[in-house]
């Protein structure tokens, strides 16, 4: 596996940012001050990573994905083209006095994306929300509430429409409270609106 960091000449990477081995940052991407990118990441053209954002290993930010501070992306996360991870619950350009808001005039609330989760193209994750492990947010969805592990959510606002396994494929029901991945054979168990697994040997 390559360990060299590759940064396109047109990318803007702050000197205080931490860039892990084998990470590639493509044209016009911007990585702000004190952001941390893990090993083996790929930042597509025009992707943005805000100040202090923490990105794990083997994360892909596709073209023009916008990740605003203080977001945390765990290992193996995928963020699709033009997806937005916001950070302001009550956005306003100015305060009540009419003056332009600056840093410190509002409290940023970061989005958390857990291990292996995927965010579809042009999806929006509202400030302060979390997306669970291996969950899948459909393209164009607007996430206004926390997404459970393995959930497949879609729509505006996003609602759970199914479950996905570690392979990202929609699970098939395999008896009451039991789900199976048609690709890997892995089995999962649903209880009280949450999914756990894989359990046992694939069948």
Q: Would you mind describing this structure in some detail?
A:
The structure is a single chain. The chain is mainly β. It folds into two domains: 1-164, UDP N-Acetylglucosamine Acyltransferase, domain 1; 165-203, no CATH class. It is built from no helices and 26 strands. The chain has strands spanning 6-7, 12-13, 18-19, 24-25, 30-31, 36-37, 42-43, 48-49, 54-55, 60-61, 66-67, 72-73, 78-79, 84-85, 112-113, 118-119, 124-125, 130-131, 136-137, 142-143, 151-154, 159-163, 172-173, 178-180, 187-191, 194-199. The strands form four sheets. Strands 1-4-7-10-13-16-19-21-22 form a nine-stranded mixed β-sheet, with no helix packed on it. A seven-stranded parallel β-sheet has the order 2-5-8-11-14-17-20, with no helix packed on it. A six-stranded parallel β-sheet has the order 3-6-9-12-15-18, with no helix packed on it. The protein is globular and about 55 Å long. The model has no long low-confidence stretch (mean pLDDT 95).
Low-confidence stretches: none
Count of strand segments: 26
Name of the CATH homologous superfamily of the largest domain = Hexapeptide repeat proteins
Q: Provide the succession of SSEs.
A: EEEEEEEEEEEEEEEEEEEEEEEEEE
- CATH class category name of the largest domain: Mainly Beta
Morphology call: globular
What is the residue-averaged pLDDT?
A: 95
CATH architecture of the largest domain: 3 Solenoid
State the strand order across the main sheet.
Answer: 1-4-7-10-13-16-19-21-22
Percent in strands: 25-35%
The class by helix and strand makeup works out as: mainly beta
Taking all Cα atoms into account, the compactness measure Rg is: 18 Å
Structure annotation, total helices? 0
Major sheet, described briefly?
Answer: 9 strands, mixed
**What is the total domain count?**
2
């Amino acid at each position: 596996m390559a360990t060299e960091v590759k940064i396109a000449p047109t990318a803007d990477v702050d000197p205080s940012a931490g860039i892990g081995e084998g990470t590639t940052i493509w044209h016009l991407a911007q990585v702000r001050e004190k952001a941390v990118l893990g090993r083996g990441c790929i930042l597509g053209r025009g992707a943005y990573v805000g100040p202090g954002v923490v990105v794990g290993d083997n994360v892909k930010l596709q073209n023009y994905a916008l990740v605003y501070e203080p977001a945390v992306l765990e290992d193996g996360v995928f963020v699709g083209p033009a997806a937005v991870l916001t950070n302001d619950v009550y956005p306003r350009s100015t305060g009540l006095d009419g003056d332009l808001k600056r840093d410190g005039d509002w409290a940023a609330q970061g989005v958390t994306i857990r291990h292996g989760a995927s965010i579809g193209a042009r999806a929006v994750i509202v400030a302060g929300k979390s997306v669970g492990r291996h969950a899948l947010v459909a393209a164009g969805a607007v996430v206004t509430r926390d997404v459970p592990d393995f959930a497949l959510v879609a729509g505006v606002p996003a609602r759970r429409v199914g479950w996905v396994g570690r392979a990202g494929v929609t699970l098939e029901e395999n008896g009451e409270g039991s789900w199976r991945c048609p690709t890997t054979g892995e089995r999962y168990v649903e209880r009280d609106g949450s999914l756990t697994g894989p359990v046992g040997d694939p069948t």
